[in-house]
Amino acid sequence: MAAVLEVEGVTGGYGRIPVLHGVSLQLDAGERIGLFGPNGHGKTTLLRTISGLLRPWQGDIRFEGQSIASRRPNRIVDLGIVHVMQGSTMFRDMSVAENLRLGAYSARARPDAAANLERVLQIFPRLRERSAQHARTLSGGERQMLAIGVGLMAAPRLLMLDEPTLGLAPRLKDELAEAVGAIAATGIPLLLVEQDVQFLLDLTSRLLMIEHGAVIAEFTAEAALDQAHIAEMYFGKRAN
Amino acid sequence: MDILSSVLLSGVVLGSLYALMATGLALVWTTLGIFNFAHGIFIALGAYVAWQFGTEEGFGLGATIGIVAAVSLLAALGCLIERTLVRPFLGHRNLVLAVVITTLAALIFLENSALLVWGPRFKQLPPLVDGTLAIGGLDIAAHEVLIVLLSPALLLALWAFLRLTYMGAALRAVSQNQDAALMVGIPVPVLFALAFGISAALAAIAGVLLGSIRFITPAMGNEPLVKALIVAIFGGLGSISGTIGGAYVIGMLEAVCVYFIGLYWTPAALFLCMILVLLVRPQGLFGRVD
Amino acid sequence: MRDLLREELPLALPVLLLLALVPFVATESYIRHLFIIAMVYAIVASNWDLSLGYGGIFNFAHLSFFGVGAYTSAILSKTLEITPWLSVPASAFTAMAAAALVCLPVLRLQGIYIILVTFAFAQLVLQLILSQSDITGGSRGMVLLPPLEIGDINFARDGKFGYYFVALGLLAVSTLTMRWLVRSAFGRGVIAMRDDPDYAAARGLSVARQRLMTMILSAAFTGVAGGFYATYLRVASTKVFEFGILSLVLSMLLVGGINTVYGPIVAAFALTFLTEFMVDLGPWRFLIIAALMVLVLLVYPGGLWSIFTSLAPKRKSRRR
User: Fold this and answer.
1) What pTM did the predictor assign?
2) Which of A35, B14, B150, B206 has the fewest CB atoms found within 10 Å of its own CB?
3) Chain A residues with at least one Cβ partner in B under 8 Å
4) How many other CB atoms are found less than 10 A from the CB of residue B144?
C-alpha cells in the first residue's frame, strides 16, 4: 500500500529547546494510527511540526511522496493535511456557522463547502442547534465538536486530532468517540493523539508509543494486545 | 441654536476624520497585536502624494488620479512597512516595544524624507468639492459635507468587507486565533500585510480630506494621531465598531470643549476624560470584558 | 552593595576615571558640551530602563518626568530666586510626584493601554505647561535661567568645565544607584513581578505597590537630570516633550539593550555623538539614524550591550 505520510528521523522543538529526537513513522492509505505516551514528550510537537507550525530541524516529512518539511502551514492545509489542535476555542467572536464556513478557506475545500457542511452537521447535530451562537459561548464538549467540524470542512485527506476528549465527561467522551468513529468509517486516514488507550484501541489499527521525542514501541490491534498490557508498559515505564 | 448647530457640525466633521484614522490603528492592533506609531505620517504622505499627482504645481493629473495614487501608493507603503519593520520582529521577546521603536524610526525616516522631497514650504490641496450647501437654514461648506458622508461610507464598506467576504472573515479570524487561522489554511502573513495596507489607505484618505482644511506639513499627522489614539482607548482597542463610536464621541466632545472652555484647555480636558474612562472601564468605553 | 562594588567597580571605575580626564584633554567647550548632553541622556535612558525594562511597565511618560524636572528647577531658580544648587535636586521630588500621579490609572491597566495612557499623560503635562503661560512662559518657554556658581566661579563662563563634573557626578551616582537597585531584593521582586506576575503575587508581592515604587524611583534622577539640563542650557522649553527626543531616548534604551543599565548609557554616548557629527547632513542624518536603529534591532535583538556580555566570560548565575 502506498504511504500517505512518511516522517523520517525528524528532530525539532520550540526555539532552541529540542523536543523531538528523531521521530520516524509511516501511515498508509486508509490507515488509522494512535499516538500515546506521557505528557510533554513530543506528541503535540510532532503534530505541530507535520502541520508546518514548527519547522523540523532535521529529517524529512513527506505527504504522498512529496516533501512538505519546509512548506508554509497554509500550503500544507491546501494539500489536505488538517490538524485539529488540542483544546482550541477556534474563532471565539464568530458564530458556529461562520467558524465552519472558514474551515473551508482553502481553495481545494471551498467548492465542496455546502456538501461538507451537511456532513459535519450530521455527525455533530449539536452544532446545528448552536449554529448562530458565538464560539465562546459553547461548552467544552461543543467546542471540541466545533474544532473537529471546522477541520472536516477543510476536506482532509489526512486528519490529525490532538486529544479530542481532553477534559470531557465520560458521557461526552463516548459521544465524541462515536463521532470520530463515524469519521474514520469514511476512510480518511487518521493520526490520533490520546491519553485514553481504550479510546485509541477502539478507533485505530496501530498504536505508537512516544517517549522522549521518539517512537519507542509499536502495537498492532491484530496482535490482540489487551489494554491491561499496554497500560502496564505505559505506567511501568513512567514509574521508573 | 445657530451656534449649537455649528458646534455639532464641527464635532461630526472631526469625528469622521478621527474615525478614519482610529479604525486603521484598531485594525492593525486587533490583527497583529502591535501599535503603529508611523500611522500619523501616512496621513501626511497621503496628502503629499495627492498634491503631487493631482494639483497643477505637481503633475497636474487631476484630483481623481491624485486620490487614486495616494490610496494605492500608501497601501503599498503600509504593506512594505509591515514586511520590513514588523514581520522580522514577530516572535521577538519584546514584540510590542520593538515595534514601537521600529515604527517610530519609520516615522522619523518618512517625515524627513517628506521634508527632503517636498521642502519646508506649506502646501494645500484644493477642496474636493467647491461651494456651500444650505442645509436646514445653515450654510455648510460642501467639502465638510463630503467628509461627513464619505467617512461613514468608507467605514461601512470596510465593515461589509470584514463581514461578508471570505478574506474579511479570514482577517477577523487571524485577530481572534492565529494558530487556528493557520490550521484552516489562512495565509496569515498575507493578511498581516493586508491589515497594514488597508490601515494606511484609510489614513491616506484622511490625509487627502485634511489636506484641504489644513496646511500639508510632514508633521500634520501627529496631532490627529494623538487624537486617534485617545479614540482608540475610548472605544476599547479590540473592536472596530467601538472605535468608530469612540471617534464620534471624541469629535463631539472636542468641538464642545473648544467652544466652551477654549482651544488651550481642550486637549487637557480630553485626556482627563480618557483617564477617567479608563479608571472606571479599563477595557474602554465600548470595550467588552473577556 | 559590597558585592556590587566588588564585581562591577573594577570595570566601572576606569571608565569613570577616563571620563573625568576628558575635560582636561578636550579643552574645546564644544566637545565638553557634547559629553554633558550625552551624560544627561545617559541618566534619562538608564533610569527609564528601571520601569520599562526591569519593571516591564510600558511607561511612555518618562520624558515628561524630565520635563517636569526642567520646569521645576526653572521656576524655583528664576521666579522664586532659589539657588540652582537647591532647585536642581528639588526637581527630583516634583518628578517623583508626577510619576506617582501617572501611576493612578496605570496600576490597573495592562500592556498597550499603559503605553497609551502614559503617552497621553505626557501630552497632558505639555498642554498644562503651554496653557499656564504666566508661570511657564507658554510656548516661548523660560529663558536666561540663573547658572550654577561657586563663589566667584560662574559655571556658565568656565568653558563648561564645572558643568562637566556636575553631570559626571550625577551620572555616577545615578548609575551606582540603578545597579544597586536592580540587584537588591526590591529589584529582584520587580523582575519576578514582570516575568511571572501570578507567582510573584502568590509570594505576597503587591503588583500595585511594586509598580508605584518602580515608577517613582525611576523618576528621581530623571527629574534631577531635567533640572540640571534646564540650568545648564539656561532654558526650559516644551521641546523636551517632542516626539523626536522621545524616540531618541527610547532608541538609546533599545539599541543599548534593555535590562542592562550600562547598555543605554553606552548608547546614549554613541547616539549623541553620531547625531552631532552628522549635523551637516540636514534631514539626511535622521534617515541614517532611523535606518541604524532598525538595523541594530534586527541584528542584535538584545541591544548592543549583548555584544559585550556575550564576549565577557560567563559569570556566576547570581548576577542578573
Assistant:
1) 0.85
2) B150
3) 51-53, 72-74, 77-78, 82-85, 88-94, 98, 101-103, 105-106, 109-110, 147, 150-151, 153-154
4) 20
